[in-house]
User: Fold G protein-activated inward rectifier potassium channel 2 from Equus caballus.
Amino acid sequence: MTMAKLTESMTNVLEGDSMDQDVESPVAIHQPKLPKQARDDLPRHISRDRTKRKIQRYVRKDGKCNVHHGNVRETYRYLTDIFTTLVDLKWRFNLLIFVMVYTVTWLFFGMIWWLIAYIRGDMDHIEDPSWTPCVTNLNGFVSAFLFSIETETTIGYGYRVITDKCPEGIILLLIQSVLGSIVNAFMVGCMFVKISQPKKRAETLVFSTHAVISMRDGKLCLMFRVGDLRNSHIVEASIRAKLIKSKQTSEGEFIPLNQTDINVGYYTGDDRLFLVSPLIISHEINQQSPFWEISKAQLPKEELEIVVILEGMVEATGMTCQARSSYVTSEILWGYRFTPVLTLEDGFYEVDYNSFHETYETSTPSLSAKELAELASRAELPLSWSVSSKLNQHAELETEEEEKNLEEQTERNGDVAKLENESKV
Assistant:
C-alpha cells in the first residue's frame, strides 16, 4: 500500500514538472536563432513560445529597395560611369566634390603660371620697367593663383594680362580655357541633372496602406488604390505588380525572392492609367494568378510580398518618374473593400483624401479561388456565378425553414389551448 502511494506521488510530481516545462520552462523551448535586428524589434512582453519571425521587406513602403550590395571587388566599374556615380551621391558629397574640383584646377594652373614666371626670371625683374614679363603684375604665387581664377572663369579684371613675348604662356592659356570649359560643362551638368531628378515628384504619388481581397463581379480579386496629390498629372502612367516569394523547383533548387508577374490588366489595357483621381487597381484571381490556391486561413501563413510600381512622365518636365510601394501578408485584408473618395459637388468632382486609406468589411467567402471554382463546377454553375448571391440563397432557405418551424410551433400551441378549453368544459 505504501509502495503504491509512493509511486503515485512520484508520478504526479513528474507530470507537474513536465507541465511546468511545457508552459514556463525555457529549457523545453528551443527558440530559433534570430538576427540582432529582428530580436531588437520583438516586443519584450511577448512570451518566447509565441514569438514570430519578422518578415523582411524587399521594398519598403516609401519605395526604397531594402538591398545592400556587399563585397563588390570590381569598384573600378563605378569610375567608368563617373557621371552617374556623381549624380547618385548624396548632396553633401556632391557639393564637396564640386568645390574640390574647381579649387584643385585653380591651384594646379596657378602653380604652373608661377613656375613659368619663376623660370623666365620675371620674379627678379619685378621693378624693372624695361623687362617684359609673361604676365604683367604677377609677383608671387598668390597673384598667379588669382590670375588662374580669372582665366578659367573668364572674369578679366584687366590688371594681370598675358603678353605676346611668352609663347609657353599662350599655350597654357589655351589649355586652361579648354579644360575649364570641360570642367564647367561636366560639373554644372551634373548639378543640373541632380536638381531636376523626379524623385521628389514620386512622393506625391500615394498608395493605399493596405491591399484588400473581396468579390468583384462574381470573381475573387486582389485590389489596392493609387492616387496623385498634384494638379499637374502624370502622362502615360502605367502600373505593374510583382509577387516576391521564395520557391523551390521540382529539381530541388531553391530560388530566394523569386519574382512573379501579377496581371493588373496588361492584356486588356487596364494597366495604362488616366490618373486624375484615385483609382483602384484590380487583379483577378484566376488559374494564372499566384493566389489561385490561397484561402483566407492560409494567407497569414504565407511569406510573400507584393511590389507595385507606378511609372509615367512628369507633365511639367517630361522626365520619367517611378513610384514604388509594397504589401506584406499582414497588410492584405481579406473580405474588405475601399471606401469611396470621389463625390460630385456643384460643377466639379471632389476627392476626399482623408478616406483614401479607409476600408470597410464586406461579405466574402473564405475559400480560395480554386475551391470556389470547384464548388461552382460541382453545382453545374458558370464560373461567373456570384458567390455572394449563392450565400444569400442559403440564408434565404434558412430563414424559410425557421419561419416554417415557427408556424408549426404556433399550430401546436393552438391545439394545446383547444384541448385545455375542452377539458375545462
Summary: The first strand starts at residue 205 and ends at 207. Residues 387-424 form the longest helix (38 residues). The radius of gyration is 39 Å. Confidence is low (pLDDT under 50) at residues 1-7, 13-51, 416-425.
